[in-house]
Prior knowledge:
Blueprint: H1 9-13, H2 16-21, H3 29-53, E1 59-63, H4 68-73, E2 87-92, H5 97-104, H6 108-111, E3 115-118, E4 123-126, E5 137-141, E6 144-147
Amino acid sequence: MQLTKNFxxxxxxxxxxxxxxxxxxxxxxxxxxELRRTAELLQRIRNYLTxxxxxDTPMSDISGYRSIPVxxxxxSSDGSDHxxxxxxxFKARGMTPYQVCQALLxxxxxxxxxxxxxxxxxxxxxxxxxxxxxNRIITIDRYGTRAGILRGRP
Length: 154
């Protein structure tokens, strides 16, 4: 099912972990509307990064929806926005996660990004606004969770 010009439902629900462990990662019907919103956010991000980079900037290694068993299996909490279809992790061709985050900072409100995280090897975005503003823009690296988009150290 095509959700936007460049993103499909399959792309937002594929999980290598689920395949390896034989776990169903099919989203319930109630999550589909949120997954569509997340795909629309990713489309806005892709379109913008393409303009910034001056070349088509596809996204890869997308991790969108995760069922509770999959989410636990990858080490995330049951409260993760991924479980509700409200978040995605991704890489953008030709850009580091730090560069992607820096490019997106001025567009958070316009694009509807509730949270952005530089996780050093990928970018996490969520459509859900966080309860505490300090948690909206963060970096997670070997030093833990820190406010702001930092270059970080693996």
